[in-house]
Amino acid sequence: MTKINKAACVGGGVIGGAWAARFLLAGIDVSMYDPHPEATRIVGEVLANAERAYGMLTMAPLPPRGTLSFAKSIEEAVQDADWIQESVPERLELKRGVLTQIDAAASPSALIGSSTSGLMPTDLQRDMKHPERFFVAHPYNPVYLLPLVELVGGQKTSKETITKAKELAATIGMEGVVIAKEIEAFVGDRLLEALWREALWLIQDDICDTETLDNVIRYSFGMRWAQMGLFETYRIAGGEAGMRHFLAQFGPCLQWPWTKFTDVVDLDDALVDKIGSQSDAQSGAYGIRELERIRDENLVGIMQALKGGNGGKGWGAGKLLADFESRLWANAGKLPVDTGAAKPLRLLDVKVNPSWADYNGHMTEFRYLQVFGDTSDALLRLIGVDDAYVKDGHSYYTVETHIRHLGEAKVNEALYSTCQVLSVDEKRIHVFHTIHRAADDETIATAEQMLLHVDAKAGKAAPAPESVLSKVKAIAEAHATLPKPEAAGRHVGQKK
Amino acid sequence: MTKINKAACVGGGVIGGAWAARFLLAGIDVSMYDPHPEATRIVGEVLANAERAYGMLTMAPLPPRGTLSFAKSIEEAVQDADWIQESVPERLELKRGVLTQIDAAASPSALIGSSTSGLMPTDLQRDMKHPERFFVAHPYNPVYLLPLVELVGGQKTSKETITKAKELAATIGMEGVVIAKEIEAFVGDRLLEALWREALWLIQDDICDTETLDNVIRYSFGMRWAQMGLFETYRIAGGEAGMRHFLAQFGPCLQWPWTKFTDVVDLDDALVDKIGSQSDAQSGAYGIRELERIRDENLVGIMQALKGGNGGKGWGAGKLLADFESRLWANAGKLPVDTGAAKPLRLLDVKVNPSWADYNGHMTEFRYLQVFGDTSDALLRLIGVDDAYVKDGHSYYTVETHIRHLGEAKVNEALYSTCQVLSVDEKRIHVFHTIHRAADDETIATAEQMLLHVDAKAGKAAPAPESVLSKVKAIAEAHATLPKPEAAGRHVGQKK
């Protein structure tokens, strides 16, 4: 099994709904079971958030969305599913009962993951007939965007199960991080809990308020951790002398305060109220939906920035995003693009990411060229100039572009781009791209581009091979009957 | 005092050196005292890193760099300084002695900040004659990039001192976050310490290795915290029911594990060695300088992404960056740009940020238009079309662009751009921009652009006011004697 054909989600709250969104947006059908009377609404809202975020996250072609169905029972939901994800409330007896029921009804080869953030897999799998295929798959909110899933096996979990789960997680854009030994709360929530306990003391003792504490985190180590985590950051702090030097310095220096903060704070009504009031003062100007939206936009922006990191090779979650996009592009040849029709090719669908906006909330000038450049890349992939071709040493480079701005794209607006091939010779492809607003098909901008086939190592133009030429010529022939766009062949400032 | 005229840095290691870099790059002269035999080299290296990072961080015009001098004594260093920053090793007696010496030699109106990450300001200011102007100013590594400085006063610190320190920190791009009460390790290091202690247990007990732990952080809550911190993130987790609901749910659920992790781990030789080996396996493929470089590039990318966030209004550290850039632009009119000379205006200096790179390590196509667009913005600011003008409802929009790619810009390469004004009428400015490689002045790309003056509210072209026209016409007249660029007025694919 190298891909998930059908997934089942048992429990459809914010976590289960976001799992469903991950599967659906990766083209996988999902059967959902949740007896909650509002399950359909909740899952629908999470899915809408996820679709919006993915539209901004990537210009790689998502496969046709999977089909979501709501089952009337656990037994019905898990039929034919090869990944079943349990996300019911965090009570051992409840979870164990649901999992045992899933186990009895599912195919013995199906993987069963639990979203528990704290319970031990050994306890959860106790009553299963096929416990070897059960594991904890603990995700982080928002599950449709954050790529982490902690994979934790119990005493009866097989190694093959964890290996397979890690492989399959990558197909939905997640990194399965394997935790070596099971403990309550695993790794992420242990770390969160320690810091959270300390934070509560700081608020309780009036050292700072919640906004100050958040600012301390987000203006400093939050950004360090977003890309490198804890140990790699401290490795740098150790300098040339390295990690051992850092520990030697840091250990004794912190010994003294360490002996103090080991008490557990009493989260009584007064403290709850204090935190609630401070949080209102800090964030109350935004509604929760608005904060969710801003959070998702920021996460998208961070992942996109990290995707370009390390000299274009990607870093951290940005590397994971690049890997996910490679998979999407590799599957894109299977998508129905009619290259033989006498009409411009529709090549990209994209939502305007808020980090692309200027102060007016309009798409910034240079992002238009990003969409046009990605449109050319999509055309090139279609004619066989894919990652492997480029790695092999040849590519098409853009040598000229003429852009006209005819309208304005706003934040979160859905756009699509089309491409008309004007002419082809053995070295050059002459194209005319258009960015349309999806809502009314109106033209927002056009770009005429000249692409030149190059031998990248020699740094010189070179004829394209017949395998590529034949494909692009077929498109050019189909487009030959189209009228030449009025704006093609014009220079800047030319009168109509 | 609304700006720092001269700063003194006592202690020039990684922290003190980076403070110096912050001051110098904000145009402030720095006098440094450090008896370490290699102080000059260390400070020089940190300054080089900082300059590289700032080149990528912003296209806003940094003022001419301040002058760095090395003093032979503390007394000499602090002469005439209005901000004195102490960054000597973390020992109370040493720091108190140095601070008392600074206090005796400095002007009584000078602010004195300490970089201590743990000592109490009351203890440090004990022997000062003018303790009211002393405070802790605790920064985070890398100090030249991370904008946080924790401001903590002691019993004798005046409120005015903290207010003034906060104001002045903003002028060097830092956010002074005021901690209400002094405690050892303040806020940030308390939080770090709690999580660090937990992390050591997880490694000690073989629950995971250092790489797994770092991945857990950076693929999940690291990215959440980079933009919102802890409480705002959890506020969202509480959903519509809010923060109090979250606490009610989360409190009892974590009560049980809370009672466990309160032991302090013994950081003995075996654990130090284990962490050292795991860290080598995780990060050993990169040297420390390389990791530093990657970290800085990633931080720049994250801050730039957050600068565009919240629909272009900025968020978190990105908002701080936007504020800092506004200050830089507001001061830019004072920079010497000779608008009367018969030569293209040199308007921007920039280094190619690695997050701008494609898989080949070359600057991605659309980033060229970013540099060209920022070049137009710089021209507009020069003729009075600044933030205030735009907020007032008028602006110039780009309606057409013709780009030619003549060379390739590589990651970290220094570039500059020039602008020739081709013609002006009451609504239009016709410009020709060139991107040059700084090393050899070679032309990498050109862009011909047509800018149209608009009434943004009406969404229509409108004549520019005389105040703007007179300035741009003066430039156009000076440029009238220049030959028209060969590439101007050409369309895509036009033969020479």
Please supply descriptive tags for the structure shown above:
homodimer, alpha/beta, Rossmann fold, N-(1-d-carboxylethyl)-l-norvaline Dehydrogenase, domain 2, Thiol Ester Dehydrase, Chain A, 3 domains, 6-stranded antiparallel β-sheet, 16 helices, 14 strands
Can you put this structure into words, describing what you see?
The structure is a homodimer of 496-residue chains. Chain A is α/β, with parallel strands linked by helices and 496 residues long. The first copy, chain A, has three domains: 6-178, NAD(P)-binding Rossmann-like Domain (Rossmann fold), CATH 3.40.50.720; 194-285, Orthogonal Bundle (N-(1-d-carboxylethyl)-l-norvaline Dehydrogenase, domain 2); 337-479, Hotdog Thioesterase (Thiol Ester Dehydrase, Chain A, Roll), CATH 3.10.129. Helices cover 43% and strands 18% of the residues of chain A. The first copy, chain A, contains 16 helices and 14 strands. In chain A, the strands form two sheets. Chain A has an eight-stranded mixed sheet with strand order 3-2-1-4-5-6-7-8, sandwiched between helices. In chain A, a hairpin with a 4-residue loop joins strand 13 (443-455) and strand 14. In chain A, helix 1 packs across helix 2 and helix 2 runs parallel beside helix 12. Chain A is globular, with a radius of gyration of 26 Å. At the A-B interface, strand 8, helix 7, helix 8, helix 9 and helix 10 of A face strand 8, helix 7, helix 8, helix 9 and helix 10 of B. Strand 10 of chain A pairs antiparallel with strand 10 of chain B, so a sheet runs across the interface.
